[in-house]
Amino acid sequence: MSKHKPESFIYHVWDFIKTIVIALAIAFVIRSFWFEPFRIPSSSMVPTLQVGDFLFVNKYTYGLKVPFTDETYFEKAPKRGDIVVFKRVAPELPGSFFGLGPTFFIKRIVAVPGDKIAYEGKFLRINGEIAPLEFIEQQTYEDRGDYSYKVNLYREDLGRVKHDVYLTPMVEEKNLREATVPEGRYVVMGDNRDNSHDSRGWVHPNWGFLERDDIIGRASFTWLSLGKNYMPRLERMFINLKVKDNES
Question: Is the peptide bond before 113 cis (omega within 30 degrees of 0)?
Fold first, then answer.
């Protein structure tokens, strides 16, 4: 029977430790610079995103940010129609309340710096023009509490992109007067318009603007989706969420 030398055992342990450290370092770099996973926890972005969708957030779309600093290189401006993940610190949010840091959200950018925006009768008005809503059909969806909502499915035209939105007939609209989006700030909304806490409600009756520095990145694609009883929804895997200019 052969005997292992202590040096050989130590070598294998050290080799294993190095492998783990390298793997963690690679994961840290990827998460810091390129992609970060994100899980959809609520129904505020249905019908585009469902509760239980898992997606990757592209963190370099708007520039390469150096971790633990405020330095950003190759910076690009977010565009109207982009789906973005961002952080917020507010007294009513769980993370802020317990001193655990920011809470993360995902919404769609509907107005960029310099835009004049208003919300009237569930219609967006951007720079004096109503964003057209094309009625598609009536649908029903269930939230994470298994409560069913009857909604109307519309296709909204933001000029750069057409995308689906839900409007709930029984919910009153949150009208907001026209305002100009300040430099370095954005207006975000959920695609589930009547069931989303967003720029319309943060400081209602005024607009709440999202700071550019609070945007983590742009939603890239779904890589997994789990429905009830954690059953995979194969039809929702690898859905491209990147908005293309002049998308039809």
Answer: no
- Note if 44 is an active site residue: yes
Q: Which two tokens stand for residue 53?
A: 């969708």
What's the mean pLDDT in 92-109?
67
Q: How far apart are CA 98 and CA 151, in angstroms?
A: 35
The domains of the chain, with CATH numbers, are 6-236 (2.10.109.10)
* Torsion angle, alpha carbons of 127, 163, 106, 208, to 10: 20
State pTM to two decimals.
0.81
Q: Name the catalytic one among 59, 79, 107, 122.
A: 107
pLDDT digit string, tens, across residues 118-153: 999 999 999 999 999 999 999 999 887 778 889 999
Q: Are 191 and 45 in contact (CB under 8 A)?
A: yes
Catalytic member of 43, 44, 199, 225: 44
